[in-house]
Amino acid sequence: MRRFALWLALLLLAFAILGYAYWTQQRTASYQLSDLRLHILTSAQPAPFLLDLQPRLYSSDYRDLATLHGKLAGLLRQAQEAQLMSSDNLLVLPEHIASWLFLQEEKPQLYAAQQLSEALPLLGLSHPLLWLQGKLQGEQLPQQLIRHKAQRLADDYLWLCRQLASEFQVSLLAGSLLLPAAEYRDGRLHTDGRGAWQQVGLACAADGTLLLPPQQQPWDAHTPPGQLQAQMLRQLGHTAAISLEQASLPWPLPGSQHSNSRPAVSQLQAHPLQP
């Protein structure tokens, strides 16, 4: 009888482990409407403009690349209707706007979380090995997920930059992406998910080609926001007195010591483009 009870317990444990392993691999499609309201602020100055876009993004906007593109494209269509999309203008997206793509294709319950602290337990249940690896290496789970998905994130970010620039015929400073050390060659960002953290920034011309080689800046929790964007603007021959902080992100970047101000609705401010 004891042997039977032991075998039964082992069998139930095996079924529980298999069931949990199956659950961690399942991703059910989820659909949520996103807020496409856009407040446009323009000056009386003539073009060309530097267009500072601060989109109000939610975790659900990052459930896949198509959703993020759709959200940004929906906002930019309104700017296009306001006659602001032009190859003479420079559109600027916030830093780290692509970093949260590590949330794509996760459990649908994740996208209902209001705080990162609510999302982390579900991420841990979905990725137990990455959670354990993070504990051993002294990194938070989001950073382990970025390492795990690094090459895909690099490909997605490059596609998003090129697609938005060519789709709306505007020069684009496409924010940035947090990545382990990456190298640009053969028209692609390459990373193996290892190495020191870098903030990678892209700038695309209106035809989708790169205006600059991808720019990288070492990143840690104390890196002040706006440095990489300002550096890239200078390389493009422009200056700007605008806020270049990570105001659009659904939550503060994991480990960051800087707060994340969030506009009530998406905002687009047009500044005279200064040479």
Gross morphology is globular
* DSSP strand content: 15-25%
For the sheet with most strands, the description reads:
7 strands, mixed
Tally of contiguous helical segments: 7
User: What is the N-to-C succession of helices and strands?
Assistant: HEEHEHHHHEEEEEHE
Going by helix content, strand content and strand pairing, the class is: alpha/beta
Low-confidence segments, given as residue ranges, are 18-24
Trace the largest sheet across and list its strands: 1-9-2-3-4-7-8
Key words describing this protein structure:
7 helices; 36% helix; two-stranded antiparallel ribbon; alpha/beta; 275 residues; 7-stranded mixed β-sheet
Describe what this molecule looks like in 3D.
The structure is a single chain. With 275 residues, this protein is α/β, with parallel strands linked by helices. α2 packs parallel to α6 and α4 crosses α5 (141-148). The protein is globular. The longest helix has 24 residues, at 2-25. Helices cover 36% and strands 18% of the residues. Residues 18-24 have low confidence and may be disordered. It has one domain (36-272). It contains 7 helices and 9 strands, in the order αββαβααααβββββαβ. The chain has helices at residues 2-25, 65-81, 116-126, 128-137, 141-148, 150-168, 227-235, and strands at residues 38-41, 49-54, 90-93, 171-180, 183-185, 188-190, 197-204, 215-218, 266-272.
